[in-house]
Amino acid sequence: METVSLSSHNIILLKHSSSSSSSSSSPQHHHHPNLIYHPNKNKSFQNPTTKKPIFHQPNSLVSHNHNKHSSLPSLMLYYAENALFHQSQTTWEQLLNSSYNPSFNFISKLFKSYTKNHNFDQIINVLHSLNSKNSTLLPQFYSLAISCFGSAGNLKLMEETTNEMVSKGFLMNSQTGNEFLLCYAVFGSLKEMENAYGRFKRSRFLIEKNVIRAMAYGYIKKRKFYELGEFVRDVGLGRRNVGNLLWNLLLLSYAANFKMKNLQREFVRMVELGFRPDVTTFNIRALAFSRMSMFWDLHLSVEHMRSEKVVPDLVSYGCVVDGYLDRKLGRNLEFVLSKMEVDDRPRLSTDPFVFEVLGKGDFHLFSEAFLEYKTQEQKWSYRVLIEKYVKKHYRREQIFWNY
Predict the structure, then answer these.
(1) Domain for residue 163, yes or no?
(2) Own/partner pairs for 84-88, CB < 8 Å, 24+ apart?
(3) How far is CA 82 from CA 54, 111, 156, 319, in A?
(4) Residue 25 lies in a domain
(5) How far, CA to CA in Å, does 42 sit from each of 7, 18, 45, 55, 290?
(6) Which of 59, 95, 150, 371 could form an SS bridge with 158, CB 3.0 to 4.6 Å?
(7) Model-level pTM?
(8) Does residue 241 fall inside a structural domain?
(9) Longest C-alpha distance within the chain, in Å?
(10) Helix ranges (DSSP H) in 97-173
(11) Sequential pLDDT tens for the chain (403 residues)
């Protein structure tokens, strides 16, 4: 007996080998109207014993050798995945009329398929049909629908489904609440995001790290740095399960407008409260010092990094190089670089939020372009990059007159 797999349908058919006596006779070809065709081969598969097709038309898609409850869900998922919505609806009605109780895994796959094809009406239809089943998983099905609507940016349906879920007495859990807020942060306006955050706070849920980042990006995108600072204070600067994210965002809100006194004060308070600065923390300050030509503070920041055993990255070196060369102090560059490991391989560890606010320096941009298009296989180091950049910088400032 040979197993033939129809992978696109997630169905396995059994094909019986012909007996030795029948193999000698010439094969007869029957043109049956209900044969199932393999998508890659122009040949039909037929049960040689019963001379009947394995599967009939979609309205009676049940094999004599397959259990109804195991075949229909698989077939419905196939229809939903391939945007065959009429057949999917027909199969769903058959499932409803049976004693089948949909599992969480099945509904999750089904909703994701409908979401991929932007058929939200089918999700609503399935959700309302599940109400008649009185399933204990109904609150989870509502959470799945909310997540699907939100991930597709359909905030209206997400809001309506949430209100419907609450009206039925189902409480939103922390995970769904965070997903709800995340969708407003990504797809909603700043006002909608803040309103959603207010509702989220009243639920007393703990906001997760990825949602904090999404909301922070919403403020940064609109250049609302004061509001960004107020937001991270409201979340709570004492939280340690998100690392230094909240403190770094607060420092960034001051560095964006070069409020140096506030920047220094909050950095000191961060250290006093027991938070250990990371490379992003130091680079936020270093970028501000470099742009404001505060070279002594920049030098102290490099010394502090060294004492804290925080390894500088490409941004750290860029702050030093750009700061000194832009003020034509290239001869003093060695004074600071002698405190740094210039023979290390270049690396980038700074949070991308920093670049969204303060941009990238010239040395940073030069190094990225140089390393991206390098043609030689060798051990690149900060020393090599700095030497090449310094030569390029001095050549750029020379003026050649062509007569």
Answers:
(1) no
(2) 85/117, 85/119, 85/122, 87/58, 88/122
(3) 21, 13, 26, 53
(4) yes
(5) 16, 20, 10, 18, 70
(6) 150
(7) 0.76
(8) no
(9) 99
(10) 104-116, 120-131, 138-151, 155-167
(11) 444 443 333 434 344 443 333 333 344 444 444 333 344 444 433 444 444 443 333 443 333 333 444 588 888 889 888 888 899 888 888 888 887 888 899 999 999 999 998 889 999 999 988 887 767 889 999 999 999 999 999 999 999 999 999 998 898 899 999 999 999 999 999 999 999 999 999 988 999 999 999 999 999 999 999 999 999 999 999 999 999 999 999 999 999 999 999 999 999 999 999 999 999 999 999 999 999 999 999 999 999 999 999 999 999 999 999 999 988 888 888 888 888 999 899 999 999 999 999 999 999 999 998 888 765 656 789 999 999 998 887 776 565 544 4
Number of structural domains the chain divides into: 2
Domain end residue (candidates: 10, 28, 54):
54
Residue 48 counted as domain residue: yes
In angstroms, what is the C-alpha Rg of the chain? 32
